[in-house]
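Hello Y.,

Per our agreement to keep a running log of every chain we model this quarter, I'm adding this entry. I've kept the format consistent with earlier entries: sequence first, then predicted structure.
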Amino acid sequence: MHDRPRTATREHESRFRYAAEGFDRAHLQRIDPCWQAEARGSDQAHALIVWNDRSAVIEDRALRLPLRGLIDLAEPLFLGIEQGRPLFALDLSDMQRTQVEALLHGGRLDELRRIGPLLSYADAGVLAYARALCHWHRTQLHCGRCGRPTRVERAGHQRVCTGPDCACVHFPRTDPAIIVLVEHPDDDAAGPRCLLGRSARFPERMFSTLAGFVEPGETLEQAVAREVFEESGIELDRIRYFGSQAWPFPASLMIGFHARARTTAIRLEDDEIIEADWFTPEALDAAGEWGDAAELCLPRRDSIARALIEDWRGRVRSAGGPASGWTED
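Predicted structure for the entry above:
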């Protein structure tokens, strides 16, 4: 087997949760039926249990169970090789919760969004991977082209239509979404500020960076400019890539940017954002955490939204003033 390729990442990006780092996805083994059959029957093979998007954990770590005693319960979905051992996901959503919990040897089923910040980066990553793959399989049981049933292929990384006149191949879905922290141009010399908004689905007083899905036929940068304008009425004159985060809730890839505003008057016309404002570093310093009873609350610490805010706030502190680092053309 080839060595696992090293992934070049920025320092901050390598610390985002929900990416399966240090993990061999073993793409060649996915397409080797003999290897798969041997791996499924091996005492070394383990499984991560998923039940209706909940993950099996024990205390503050992922619960890995021997696959051999579970293999007849559901189709094993091959995730890769972890520390030399084959690792699979099993979606037991068709079983009763009590039946599943009886298999967990003291473990429990929990929401990954709730426990993710408590897990190691490695465990959060593999659980997110398993959750996303199982979710896709549950929503792709029938062909989107002809409606016939689909079957699992390539150890769980494809589904193929069973219709002989169709045979359409379906791949796991990932939806790209941009997320952006917009910096005030400080054209009024009032000091550094960033734009945050509050969605109607957020808890009271929780503000975050602006975000939205990429539409067909547009670049990431065009999506950034469009989403910011649609949600706040702000126009941009600089856009810079920050990093990306796997976000399997259920199937997104969050692609982060910093941007500098060209206009500063906020105009809310999109009913998705019900409040937006420019916030100073001092206001962010006084903010509470998600769920706190504070005047202003920030996004959860496991999100790229929070990483964007902390990166900007850190650069402002380092510079002792406006610190966008933008280079003029």
